[in-house]
Amino acid sequence: MKLKTKLTLGVGLLFFLIVLLSVMGSVYINKLKSDTEKILIANYNSIEFSKNMLLALDKIKSDSLIAIKDFQKNSALQEKNLTEFGEKEATQNLNLHFKNYLQQPSDDKEKLIREDLVTIMSLNMKGIERKSDIAIITAENATFWIVSLGTVCFLIAFILLFNLPQTIAEPINQLTFSIRQIANKNYNERVHFKGSEEFNDLANSFNIMAEKLQEYESSTLSKQLMDKKRIETLVNNMHDAVIGLDENHFIYMINDEALKITNLNKEEIIGKTVHEVAVNNDLVRELLKNMDHPVKEPIKIVTDNKENYFEQDIIPINIVKTGEKEKKYIGRVILLRNITPFKELDFAKTNFIATISHELKTPISAIKMGVQLLGNQKFGELNDQQKELLKSINEDGQRLLDITGELLNLSQVETGNIRLNIENCSPKEIVHAAIKNVEKLAEQKNISINSQFSINDNDFVSADFDKTVWVMNNFLSNAIKHSFQDENIHILVEKIDSNIKFSITDTGKGIDEKYHRQIFDRYFQVPGEHQNGTGLGLAISKNFIEKQHGEIGVNSSLNQGSTFYFSLPLA
Ligand code: ADP
C-alpha cells in the first residue's frame, strides 16, 4: 500500500471517528437534557403543585380565602400539566372533591382531597422513576458508544503513533547510510524497503543509480588502466630516455631506454629520490647537475658497445587542479633525446667535408703555384689582358683555399680534433699579424684600419697565436666586406679585469638584433644578403675562442655599424 494512502486512511479514519464521537456526544447530551426537562416539566411541577395544594389545604381552616385561592391556582396549573396515565382522572376527582369540600367542609371530604393529591403525587413519582430509568439507559448508551468510539480512536492513534514515525524514519535512515556508502565509493551498496510503494520506488531508483555508478566506475577504471598501459607502453617504446620526478624529486616513472643507459633496474629506482639514486650512479649524478641549468652540449653514453648521443631537456610539469585557478608545480620530466642518428649523419658529413677539403687543398695550391709561375717573366711576357686573367685566377684560387681552410677548421672543430698550442702571446703581435693579412683587401676599398691599445707592454694573453690571429682575421675581413668604400675600421685592445678584450668596430650596415645569436651558428648568413662566404667564419671563431676559455660576442644594430669582440684570459 502507498504511504500516502496509508496516511490518508489512518488520519482520515481518525478524523471521521472524532467527528462521529462529537456528533454522538452532542446527540446523547441533548437526549439526556430533554429527558431531564421532561421529568422537570411533566412530573416535578405536578408534585410541586400538589405540595402547594396540600399546604393550602393545611391553611384553609385558619386563612380560608387565601388558601382557597392558592389551592385553585395550583389546581388550575395541575389541570394543564396532565402527563401520566390516570393523572387526568385523579385531577378531575380532586377538583370534584374540592368543590364538594367548599360547599360543605368536613374532615372526610378533606381526607378525600388529600388522597387525590397523594394519588397525583405518586403517579408523578412513578413517572419520574420511569423517565429516570430511560435517562439512565440513554446515559449508558451514550457511555457505551462514546467509550467504544474513543477506544477505536485511541487504537488508531496509538497504531499511527508507533507505526508512522518508524515507517518514515527507518527508510530515511537506511537511505542516508546507503548514500554515505556511495559517497565513499562503495558502489555495491543496495537498499530494500518493505511496505510502502513510494519507498519501494525510491529503493529501486537508488539501486539503479548505484548500479550505473558501479558500471561507470568499473568502465572508467578499466579505461584509465588501459590509457595508463597505453601511455606506459608508448613511453617505454620511445627511443628517448624519460625519467619522471615528482615535486619532491621522487622517481615515479622511468622508461626502458632510461634504464638501459643508466644501467639500473626498475626495482632499485622507483620510490627513491633522484638524489639517492645519484649517489651510486655517475650518469644520474651528471643529469642532476644539469637539472637546474640544462646544457645544450650532447651527452655521450656508450651502450651496447656503441656511442650514443643524447640531448638533455628538463620539462617542468605544472597543472591546474579541478576547481582551482592557479597552476601548481607537480614535478618534472628529464628527457634525454636520442640524437645518435643525427650525430652519425653529422659525422659522415664532417668526414666528407674534411676529406673533400683536404683533397682539394693540394690541386688548388698547385693551380695557385702554376698561376704564379705563369706570371714569372722567365716564362715569357704577358699582355695586360693575360695579366688581368691570371690575377683573377689567383684571387679565385686564394678564395678557394680560404674556403677549404675554413672547412678543414670546421671539421677539426666538429670532430674535436682541434689541437691548441697555448702560449703567452702579445696582443699587439696578434693584431699586427691579422692586419697584415687583410691589408690588400682593405686597400681595394680604400679602408683604413687603426688600432688602439689600452694595455701595458707586459700584458700577454694565454692563447693559441695562429687560431687567435685567424679569429681576428675573420673579424677584420668581415668588417671590410661589410663596410662601404673609404671607411674606417677601429681596433681596440683593452684590459678588463683579468682579461684582454679585442674589439673590431666598423661603420658598415650593421646586423639586426634578432640575428645576433644565430650568426655564430654554423652556415648561418643574414638573410637577403648575397655574399660569397660560407657562413662558417664566426662559428669557427666562437669555437676557437671558447676552447681557449675566452668569450666572444657582437654589439650591433641595423645601419649603425658593428663591433665584434672577443676576450682572452691574461697570461
Ligand atoms: P661568412 O663566410 O658569410 O662571412 P661568417 O660566419 O663570417 O660567414 O658571418 C656570418 C654572417 O654574419 C655573414 O654572412 C654576415 O651576414 C654577418 N656578418 C658578419 N660580420 C659582419 C659585419 N661586420 N657586418 C655586418 N654583417 C656581418
Automatic annotation (TrEMBL):
Residue limits of the PAS domain? Answer: 227-273
Histidine kinase domain segment(s): 355-571
Domain of life, per lineage: Bacteria
| Pfam family, any one | HisKA
Transmembrane intervals: 142-164
Can you quote a single GO CC term? plasma membrane
EC number(s) per UniProt? 2.7.13.3
Has UniProt tagged this entry with the keyword Transmembrane?
yes
User: What is the name of this protein?
Assistant: histidine kinase
Q: What is the lineage of its organism?
A: Bacteria, Pseudomonadati, Bacteroidota, Flavobacteriia, Flavobacteriales
